[in-house]
Design goal:
Elements lengths: L4 E6 L4 H11 L7 E7 L6 E7 L2 H6 L11 E7 L14 E3 L2 E9 L2 H7 L10 H12 L2 H11 L2 E9 L4 E4 L9 E5 L2 E5 L3 H4 L7 E2 L4 E5 L4 E5 L15 E2 L2 H5 L5 E2 L2 E2 H14 L9 E5 L5 H11 L7 E3 L10 H4 L6 H8 E3 L1 H4 L3 E6 L8 H10 L4 E6 L34 H12 L5 E4 L2 H8 L5 E2 L1 H4 L6 H4 L1
Parallel strand pairs: 14-23, 17-20, 20-21, 21-22
Antiparallel strand pairs: 1-4, 1-10, 2-3, 2-4, 5-6, 6-7, 7-8, 8-12, 9-10, 9-11, 12-13, 15-16, 18-19
């Protein structure tokens, strides 16, 4: 469930309203569904509300929850990676006296289920395994300790028990971001800083890998649960997901001290450094909206070539990358739906040399349609600039591209791990649309430099080398 958004609100008079604001602010982390749990002070039980779709829809359909006498809760925005579309896989997930919200993908979850005698009856979700392990452990702290030693993959967690104790844990690998913020006596948690900023709190604290914040609303313990090795013998080292900052995160957030929007602008500037296009009035920089916008800003500022919004974004559209399996119900392809999100403005691109910027090329399912629209609208030339390196391998930590055969760069050349970058770029260019004049990725050396990598990132998607040997771990 990797790119899910998780969070919590503790010791607040308005947990329902606060969690709504938090969840909306990190909607970018998942559109498949939303859920939240509140601790009812009158009955002493946990009440959970879940539903498919966007945060606003789920909360509006659960307005009666605002009447619960509660001062705390946890929430989840779901982006499906492990577990099918079964409604039972929506979170938070209950197990005994606990509810669990999970951001990550534990890829040895089936082995853990077998070892701990956990039956996967109505769900194939790794989060169900995590929840049952915490239940068996008997406390949030004990559950985190067991998971830190045995679980392989990513597992940021927000957990609440029947007594109203809330534990928020960033896994010992530190793959994905997790933040805390305080306002008066209230404590809040969210996967990204905007989930804290939404409440008017601007001094959010990033949890370190292995940090567990355990709070009953009065006292908060900060505990480090970070073994040097897993029980199976794999060394644990910081492995920040290298796709978070350039692609997935809200551009208003940071991770590991790197501001997402700044990275993207710096990457765009570096791409401009590698080019020599004239600023002749006939050349423009056009971002694919909204993913390529900050890359275009950086490219334009460095090169002096004006940035023009040659695509008019339809803000009502979900991120298509997450919705491909649903769009077929409408009888149209994701490629055609992409045109509804990015509508070309012919008056801007006609007769121009167009430098198109975007964050990544994964499957290249929608880019060809947009490129075709540019040519149909009269663009003289099209050049494609990508703010990351080629994605050549599956993600086992949660991004929804587990099938390598569907990755554009992975299938473009015979050996993507060793192929020269220029050979990769040329093959991908032709595969997308041979009319594209040139395609350039951000070189890996520059990618690592701009991320500030100190051998503390996971570049598995880009190199095929993971923090844990995947086949051996299974």
């Amino acid at each position: 469930m990797h790119k899910c958004g998780i969070g919590a609100a503790v010791n607040t008079e308005t947990p329902f309203q606060d969690m709504f604001q938090q969840a909306v602010s990190i909607q970018n982390r998942g559109y498949d569904g939303c859920g939240f749990s509140l601790h009812d002070l009158d009955s002493g039980i946990i009440k959970t509300y879940r539903g498919p779709g966007r945060v606003v829809n789920v909360f509006l359909e659960s307005l009666d929850a605002s009447e619960i006498n509660s001062d705390r809760g946890i929430f989840n925005n779901r982006y499906r990676t492990t577990g099918d579309t079964n409604p039972q896989n929506l979170q938070p997930i209950a197990a005994g006296g606990y509810v669990v919200s999970h951001n990550g993908n534990v890829f040895n979850s089936r082995r853990l289920a077998e070892e701990h005698g956990i039956k996967l009856e109505d769900s194939d979700s790794d989060t169900h395994v995590i929840a049952q392990i915490i239940r068996q452990a008997g406390s949030i702290k004990a559950g985190m300790k067991l998971l830190a030693e045995e679980a392989l993959g990513a597992f940021n967690l927000a957990v609440m028990d029947i007594n109203g104790v809330v534990g928020v844990y960033r896994d010992p690998w530190g793959y994905h971001p997790l933040f805390a913020g305080r306002r008066g006596k209230s404590t809040y948690f969210a996967s990204e800083e905007p989930g804290i900023h939404a409440l008017g709190i601007y001094d959010a604290e990033e949890l370190k890998p292995g940090d567990l914040w355990l709070t009953d609303g009065v006292y908060t313990d900060k505990i480090s649960i970070r073994p040097s090795r897993t029980k199976s013998g794999f060394p644990i080292r910081t492995s920040i997901c290298s796709v978070e900052i350039p692609y997935f995160m809200n551009p208003g957030g940071s991770f590991g001290g790197t501001l997402s929007s700044q990275f993207r602008e710096n990457a765009g500037a570096r791409l401009a450094d590698l080019d020599e296009f004239p600023n002749d009035g006939d050349t423009i920089v056009v971002p694919i909206m909204n993913s390529g916008e900050h890359y275009a800003i950086g490219y334009s500022e460095r090169s002096g070539i004006p940035m023009k919004k040659g695509f008019q974004v339809n803000t009502a559209m979900n991120r298509l990358y997450m919705e491909e399996d649903k769009l077929s119900v409408l009888g149209v392809t994701p490629q055609k739906m992409a045109r509804l999100k990015n509508m070309v403005v012919p008056e801007i691109v006609r007769g121009k040399r167009v430098i198109v910027t975007d964050d990544t090329i994964v499957r290249a399912g929608t880019v060809p349609e947009l490129i075709k629209d540019l040519f149909d609208a009269g663009a003289e030339e099209v050049h494609l600039r990508i703010g990351t390196s080629p994605i050549i391998s599956s993600c086992h930590m949660g991004l929804n591209h587990s099938d390598t055969t569907k990755l554009r760069a992975a299938t473009a050349v015979e050996n993507p791990r060793t192929a020269p970058l220029r050979e990769m770029e040329e093959s991908v260019r032709i595969g997308i649309d041979g009319r594209i004049k040139s395609l350039r990725y951000l070189p890996m050396e520059d990618f690592k430099t701009l991320l500030g990598d100190k051998n503390d990132h996971c570049f598995g998607c880009f190199t095929g080398v993971y923090p844990v040997p995947i086949l051996q771990a299974h």
